[in-house]
What we know:
Blueprint: H1 7-13, E1 16-18, H2 27-36, E2 41-48, H3 49-54, H4 57-61, E3 70-75, H5 79-90, E4 96-101, H6 106-110, H7 121-137, E5 142-147, H8 156-169, E6 174-178, H9 189-192, H10 200-209, E7 214-218, H11 224-232, E8 237-240, H12 242-246, H13 248-258, H14 269-283, H15 287-291, H16 304-314, H17 323-333
Parallel strand pairs: 1-2, 1-8, 2-3, 3-4, 4-5, 5-6, 6-7, 7-8
Helix pairs in contact: 5-7, 7-8, 14-17, 16-17
Amino acid sequence: MGERMDGRAVRAAARFSVAPMMDWTDRHCRVFHRLLTRRALLYTEMVTAPAVVHGDRARLLGFSPEEHPVALQLGGSDPALLAEAVRIACDFGYDEINLNVGCPSDRVQNGAFGACLMREPELVARCVAAMRAASEGAGGPEITVKCRIGVDVQEPESALRDFLRIVSAAGVSRFAVHARKAWLQGLSPKENRTVPPLDYALVRAVRDENPGLHVSLNGGIETLDAAAGHLADGFEGVMLGRAAYQSPGAVLSRVDERVFGDAPRPVDARAVVETMTAYTACAGVPVKSVGRHMLGLFAGQPGAKVWRRYLSEHMHLPDAGPHTLIEAFDAMARRPAHA
Length: 339
């Protein structure tokens, strides 16, 4: 799937990353996002290790060369299964493989992985040690971890410190930390993204105590100004989720200049739509599979409502096709000046 990037280049890309999000950051989404930013690190949705080992690997792991740098996020708690999933994934050419220790959904709780692993740092250490050995044996990429600051009744001040100490001792030196606890009992996955209070100060303090670690801050970062502020505070990276997804034109098209210091590169919105039209036709997928990721392309701009409404109303129709994307753009261009 194209050339895997050098590890130093991937770490540089991790200065700004788009968070892995279930049902959102699929391969079509990542191709679209890559048109807006050349530099940001993109993540897959979480894929479970048993699915990789026993399922349709091409469907679960396949991606397009233009997506680089791209990281695979795995879910699981069995070191042997995770190691086998890593060996399989190495053949696909991912630039990073990340272990999910942050998702609070019922599905991952039932599978004894995700955020509930915050309570078992020793098990996580065994998992990542097995993953690292498998990746190194296959000439693969760095193994990283995405976690919370704690779960349920844990005290984050000690839980996060213990977790990073134990897991980093197993060879992980790059973490993305969602600066909220996860309440596995009493809050829904959606509520867990917004209700538990953010504690950026704790993550910053723990990061300062561990200068050898590369820590990306995640959770509640909604603008590039906020991202730049956290980078100025000493974080090696920032990870945005819904803000980058829901307003990709406003956020991702400015990342290379604002975060990476590249020369300004105006994004031609018409060219983006035309490229995604051609991609949809070449991929042979329903336009709704692609268009749903593009609804926020013009968020905050004149005509955004026309674009979103046209796509929402037309991309599910029987005669919808790649042409629907161009038609939506043209409808926006024809809108009355006040629309």
